[in-house]
């Protein structure tokens, strides 16, 4: 038994020593970072930034970051920085926050440069959670956001939307250069019968008739209805974008504010 204990006691330091003497970890940190940049950095053959779809927080971690803790905290920020983060649901943000908090010197959040929250429409009930995560990304450059206003049965004014979703928290982001924002609204309801409740219009139809070599113009009235086509109103969406532009100009910022389709 003593022999087994002694062997086990000797094996553990030996394992730790082999990890600590890894060739990668023996390199200076500057060289290791260059390796990670070469591995994860933008490709010279492609001008588009790859999208990282995040269904759960672990989707953000590449396999090499599982080697050990030191590689994790050095390589993960470089991996994230060169990608557009696309969470698929609001519930992944708290776990993602914990993961980013685990990287020292705030390098986790600082590495998030492009964030796309357009995979789901953000309801007002989760606005605080989303805005908290957004403001933690202190070097965020590109943000895409869709606000979910479908639960409201009446049209919302611009001020109501900016207050409900706490949109003023986006303004102080110092590195933000592009903001794409859309509002998801339900279309205005159609009447039960589109032909009802519409005003009647009288239209004079002209018919030319030739009688005894003389052209006679005959007029007869024709009843028709004025059709109105109902669609979702995007006026408030435009007002919200203009509000953002004005607010950014007030603080001397040149931020491009667009719709997601632009």
UniProtKB/TrEMBL annotation:
It comes from the Eukaryota. This is F-box domain-containing protein. It comes from Lophiotrema nucula. The lineage of its organism: Eukaryota, Fungi, Dikarya, Ascomycota, Pezizomycotina.
